[in-house]
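Private note to self, pasted from the team thread so I don't lose it. Backbone tokens:
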């Protein structure tokens, strides 16, 4: 039984950490709650509960994977530009490599993955 209890605690901690990381990343990137709901594929009311601390992501749901990608986007962007203001500008500016504004792409899973891959490739050049 101890193994199951430890696994439950680790899962609970991971859920709490990821949930907090997503809200902080969204705040720092100035991503609206309505856009964050689209990015994660959840309802606006779920995002409201997330910010209030009444909701945490669950590992077996698709939103977990999208949340991980969103945090990865933030961390990659932060490592490249190093300043939140510049990160927000990059996210909202037209990007020739992506042929769109990244903020518009991330509202769909395919676009989020594309932006993350683009940032990963850019990080390799730094």
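Design output:
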């Amino acid at each position: 039984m101890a193994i199951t209890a430890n696994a439950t605690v680790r899962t609970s901690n991971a859920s709490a950490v990821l949930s907090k990381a997503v809200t902080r990343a969204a705040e720092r990137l100035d991503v609206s709650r309505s856009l964050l709901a689209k990015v994660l594929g959840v309802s606006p009311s779920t995002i409201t509960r997330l910010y209030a601390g009444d909701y945490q992501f669950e590992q077996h749901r698709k939103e977990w994977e999208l949340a991980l990608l969103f945090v990865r986007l933030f961390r990659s962007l932060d490592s490249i530009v190093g300043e939140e203001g510049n990160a927000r500008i990059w996210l909202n500016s037209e990007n020739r490599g992506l042929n769109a504004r990244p903020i518009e792409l991330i509202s769909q899973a395919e676009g989020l993955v594309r932006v993350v891959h683009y940032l990963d490739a850019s990080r390799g050049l730094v």
